[in-house]
Amino acid sequence: MAKIGDIMTYKYLSQKILSELQVDGRQSVRELAEKLEVSATTIAKRLEQLENDGILRGVTADIDYEKLGYAYLAITRCKVRGDAFEEVLELFKELPPLTDIYEITGDYDVLAIGHYQDRKEMNTIVKRLQEHDGIIETNTSIALRILRENGQIPLPTGDQETEDS
After folding, report:
1. pLDDT tens track of the chain, all 165 residues?
2. Given CA atoms 134, 103, 151, 139 in this order, what sign does their dihedral have?
3. What's the whole-model pTM score?
4. Which of 4, 51, 73, 88: disulfide with 143, CB 3.0–4.6 Å?
5. Class of domain 65-142
6. Which fold has domain 13-52?
């Protein structure tokens, strides 16, 4: 805790809050305040600012889809006809098994990650994509093993040693 005469700095407060939420998104404002040694009001205001700025988009559950019966994770890449791009993106958004959808560079235009209960469900979704006039080509790979999922980028919090120290 800062003492009289100490300089209180909030330079890295946002990153510290976000780092804590990456570890456990269920922490209360009071718990965060205690860990970071600032007032609950300060934490609440900073969280509100992070949300208003679109940095903190929400706190979600880290779900093990395989344990829920979604045994197949597939990555589908699609080449899309330029004039049909927005229409194709709407199709991707309509397909619930596709949890992550990215516009990408390279040989393909769109990459989607889907979670499927069985090969039949996966085949149905891939065929639906292939049947769309705006999709020129698809390429689907099944993940054999998940090495890391929902990874977290370590955020600078000012606690690390720097070359200048």
Report:
1. 444 333 445 778 999 999 898 888 899 999 999 999 999 999 999 999 999 999 999 888 888 899 999 999 999 999 999 999 999 999 999 999 999 999 999 999 999 999 999 999 999 999 999 999 999 999 999 999 988 887 788 888 876 544 444
2. positive
3. 0.75
4. 73
5. alpha beta
6. Arc Repressor Mutant, subunit A (1.10.10)
